[in-house]
Design goal:
six-stranded parallel beta sheet, globular, binds NADP nicotinamide-adenine-dinucleotide phosphate, binds zinc ion
Length: about 350
């Protein structure tokens, strides 16, 4: 077994503390990655605090992982020792069902296995990126370009792909009008991508203080969502709205932004249901949809696009012994725009 250390939550109420554990020795198809940086996703907070239910402890969170390959199994073809590598939200799928075969592994019919807070098909607990190493099958390990700042690449593995996948799926391109709701880790990547793909892009935010940043990140327009008149002015104007909000909020206000055949895609995962009026849907023949991270091929495609266009996340590095402070600041919307743990601090 490989000795690992990291930080774990022991229950839903206590702070994360140092934790030692073991990972499996690499099998023929496995890659071992020494973790150098790990992003802090709001999903980590939801799961550590058991806001979605079913959390398993001890939990080592983290699914925005970058580092260096330290060992590979005999059957690994894409990586060698010393290469940069990334691991995201998924570490196992059946690879046989129609969704896996279509490159939509997060929707695996047998169930995708998360990087943490999950059990592999063999029944082992998975432990995530707030740790010094990880073992994952090559299929779930990504090639990272050395051209980009490594720490700032980490959030692409979740915040990046979770916004990239729906923007691509719903054909966001030049000539489309796109709204991004919520300027956090996901929202700021959504803005960068929508702008880069050529769409006319507006940010909807509850935080007036984020307006200048939003423009810098790619928003053509910033709308303060608490301003009802401003919201009305944008009614019926948007082809696509990507909702990246982590807390309960009124979806109908954002459905109303959609023009004929427009789509609102929910990627934020509040812990409470979001009621939708039938009138919000039938007006303008609107669609309400959702999207979960992205497939393995499209994740690599997104990483390659970022390397070509020089796109990374805007990050603040944190040492691992200050996770509580980082979590509190994420909850207050007080991070520009993603915390990344410097694993050298472990
Ligand atoms: P985050 O950095 O905390 O950003 C969330 C943003 O939502 C905040 O910055 C804030 O933006 C807005 N917001 C927060 N509370 C609000 C409220 N009460 N009303 C309105 N707006 C509010 O979180 P994140 O890491 O980007 O994650 C966002 C959500 O996506 C989380 O629920 C996470 O679990 C989920 N997620 C889903 C997937 C997926 O596959 N679908 C993947 C990763 C994460 P403003 O200040 O601009 O209003
Ligand atoms: Zn995430």
């Amino acid at each position: 077994m490989i000795q690992s250390k990291g930080y774990a939550a022991q229950d839903s109420k206590s702070p994360l503390t140092p934790f030692s554990f073991e990972r499996r020795d690499p099998g023929a198809k496995d890659v071992v990655v020494e973790i150098l940086y790990s992003g802090i996703c709001h999903s980590d907070i939801h799961q550590v605090r058991d806001e979605w239910g079913g959390s398993m402890y001890p939990m080592v969170p983290g699914h925005e992982i970058v580092g260096k390959v330290t060992a590979v199994g005999a059957g690994v073809t894409r990586f060698k020792v010393g290469d940069l590598a990334g691991v995201g939200v998924t570490v196992e799928t059946c690879m046989e069902c129609e969704n896996c075969k279509a490159g939509a592994e997060p929707y695996c019919l047998k169930g995708m296995v998360g990087t943490y807070n999950a059990k592999t098909y063999a029944g082992e607990m998975t432990y995530g990126g707030y740790s010094n190493n990880i073992v994952a099958p090559e299929h779930y390990v990504y090639t990272i370009s050395p051209k980009l700042e490594l720490a700032a690449v980490a959030p692409l593995l979740c915040a990046g792909i979770t916004t990239w996948s729906p923007l691509r799926h719903w054909g966001v391109t030049k000539g489309k009008k796109v709204g991004i709701v919520g300027l956090g880790g996901l929202g700021h990547m959504g803005l960068k991508f929508a702008h880069s793909l050529g769409a006319e892009t507006a940010l909807f935010t509850t935080s007036e203080s984020k307006a200048a940043d939003a423009k810098r990140l790619g928003a053509d327009e910033v709308v303060i969502s608490k301003d009802k008149d401003a919201m009305l002015k944008h009614k019926g104007k948007f082809d696509f709205v990507l909702d990246c909000v982590s807390a309960p909020h009124d979806l109908n206000e954002y459905m109303n932004l959609l023009r004929l055949d427009g789509t609102l895609c929910q990627v934020g995962l509040p812990d409470q249901p979001l009621p939708v009026s039938a009138f919000s849907l039938v007006t303008n023949r609107r669609s309400l949809s959702g999207s979960m991270i992205g497939g393995m091929n499209e994740t690599q495609e997104m990483l390659d696009y970022c390397a070509e266009k020089n796109i990374v996340s805007d990050i603040e590095l944190t040492p691992i012994n200050r996770l509580d402070e980082a979590y509190e600041r994420v909850l207050k919307g007080d991070v520009k725009y993603r915390f990344v743990i410097d694993m050298g601090s472990l």
